Amino acid sequence: MTQGGRSIRSRSARRSTGTDRPPWPFVVLAALAVAFFALPFLGLLWRLPWGDLWGLLTEESSLQALRLSLVCSLAATAISIVLGVPLAWILARVGFPGRGLVRALCILSMVLPPVVGGVALFAAFGRRGLVGGPLYDWFGIRMTFTTLGVVMAETFVSMPFLVLSVEAGLRGLDRRPEDAARTLGASRWYTFRRVTLPAVRPALIAGAVLAWARALGEFGATITFAGNLPGRTQTMPLAVYLALESDTGQALVLSFVLIVVSFVVLLALRDRWLGGGPTTVG
Amino acid sequence: MADPTPPPPPGPTRNTTTRRRGAVLLLLLAVLGFVAGCGSDSDSSTGSTSPATTEAAANVTGTITVFAAASLTAAFQEAAEAFQEANPDAEVTLNFAASSALAQQIDEGAPADVFASADEANMTKVVDAGNLAGEPEIFATNSLEIIVEPGNPKGITGVAGLAGSGVIYVTTAPEVPIGKYAALVLEKANVTVTPASLEADVKAVVTKVTSGEADAGIVYATDVTAAGDKADGVTIPADINVIAKYPVGVTKEAANPQAAQAWLEFITGSEGQAILAKYGFGAA
User: Fold this and answer.
1) How far apart are CA A129 and CA B211, in angstroms?
2) Is residue B188 part of a domain?
3) Alpha-carbon distance A217 to B2, whole Å?
4) Where would a tag sit more exposed on chain A, N or C end, judged by fewer CB atoms within 10 A?
5) How much is the pTM?
């Protein structure tokens, strides 16, 4: 099944990978670009208080932020998968009027400045918000200044990554195995679970990892909507930002951890796509 | 059914296609990561101006970049207008944030000509780092008040009321002047309060209350005045109140030291002091 779906997209016989001899201006400009990306990290490594690294990292405030970041970003990723996969499926497969509009709306938060996202969340889910108001007045449910608020802010900015990735995966898929499954009497749900889902697994994994990485790094929407309290809403990026004013060493160490985690994720993702190749359905 | 694409010529192996797709995805990620980074940075961005170098003569010309405590926002905005009116060749660029954030930015080499702090501790940090030219000068004082929603729906009558159950109290981190002052007040009143959030600066505390997300916070009296009818104030008795002293100084790296000095003289002078008094600041 993989054969059909993929070969459609790979018509270009000559690919642009491999070894070419580059024009020399390219070498210079590309080197400049690499330096531009590498230098900030080198600078950070250079400023890092290597002696206190372990001490600062195992400080209760660091661990608290790290724990909270992990919990919230994983929760946001889980919600993104549960809601995002059906959304992606509908965007990819169901033609309905205003589909473009819906898609634009659902990925808007990806390009919005996160602070704006936070303000918008406020307006909807705050204690005086469109939905948050009645929720608070009737049931006493408050989302601002809570860990739930952090998860919401992170989900808001990260789900589009999953939706885009899965939708692209679905669109690039060969529909024939699904049609075959349906012809052979499989239900829609069974077909989705046993044929479609395995086929888009690489896209799903990539999307989930991207969404998770984005959630992990979320700052603007979180501090605006969920506030900042150690142990409850202060995630790593918030801790970095606030530690900058009090303890630069700790800020650098936390930044270092975030960079290492993100870098490892990217490398793993690359291996996933280059090394192992997609999971094939036999 | 399948895409109406012409049948593919014998394509490359699957592995290579995947390779290309992975590269595209990585590129997308890189771009988006960059955008996201820009977004989150924008809250802390300094009001950046290219340091204007002027052949400063006796008259005041060029740009003066003033880093000022968030609580000075309204007063300094008006002062800057008055100053520019008096000195048509000068332009004042204001950057408001928590004094702690500003001190850190200045020590990292941010292009500030003047630093006006809401406390002496953050000014001392800049002085100790050797980033201030000369001695700082106290130019204003401020007292503290409890800010509550209009009409005081939670019926908070004093500091003790902040500890009440169901009262959402917000403050800032202890490095931010108002956070330190608020903690001092609570300590003097012997009241323990668990904040719902540690905001970035005093204006964020005010916003959380005026937007209805929080019930109360301890802020400067001037902030309650500035909030107008969007908030009410509850007086904190003098014996547990704290008088905040605002020092100001010209930075060592000032791009426009003459003009910076002129600004300093303006706000310590009668006209500047009158504007500050109008917003509720006390005299030095």
Assistant:
1) 10
2) yes
3) 38
4) C
5) 0.74
Kindly state whether residue A195 falls inside one of the protein's structural domains.
Answer: yes
State the total domains in chain A: 1
Residues 156-215 of A with CB under 8 A from B: 157, 161, 165, 174-176, 179, 202, 206, 210, 213-214
Residue A27 lies in a domain: no
Q: Could you tell me if residue B54 is inside a domain? A: no
- Report the C-alpha gap between B91 and B81 in whole angstroms: 9
Q: Per the domain annotation, does A38 fall within a domain?
A: no
Chain A segment 6-65 residues within 8 A of B by beta carbon are 6-11, 13, 15-17
Query: Of A115, A219, A227, which has the smallest distance from its Cβ to B199's Cβ?
Result: A227
Give the residue numbers spanning the domain of A127.
Answer: 57-276
The encoded tokens of residue B271 equal 């006209």
Instruction: Answer whether residue A270 is part of any domain.
Output: yes
Cβ neighbours, 10 Å, residue A10? 19
User: Could you give the CA distance from residue A24 to residue B39 in angstroms, rounded to a whole number?
Assistant: 35
B269 CB contacts (<8 Å, ≥6 apart)? none
Task: Spell out the per-residue pLDDT of chain A, length 282, in tens.
Answer: 444 444 444 455 555 566 778 888 999 999 999 999 999 999 999 988 888 888 888 888 889 999 999 999 999 999 999 999 999 999 999 989 999 999 999 999 988 898 899 989 989 999 889 999 999 889 988 898 899 999 999 999 999 999 999 999 999 998 899 999 999 999 999 999 999 999 999 999 999 998 999 999 999 999 889 988 888 999 999 989 888 777 788 889 989 988 888 888 878 777 665 444 444 433
Q: Which of A16, A114, A270 sits opposite B36 (nearest CB)?
A: A114
Q: Is residue B73 part of a domain?
A: yes
Q: Is the ipTM of this complex over 0.85?
A: no
Nearest to B11 among A11, A210, A234 (CB): A11
For residues B205 and B171, membership in a common domain is answered with yes
Contact (Cβ atoms closer than 8 angstroms) between residue B185 and residue B218? yes
Range of the domain at B70: 62-141+245-278
Q: Which CATH number do you get for residue A253?
A: 1.10.3720.10
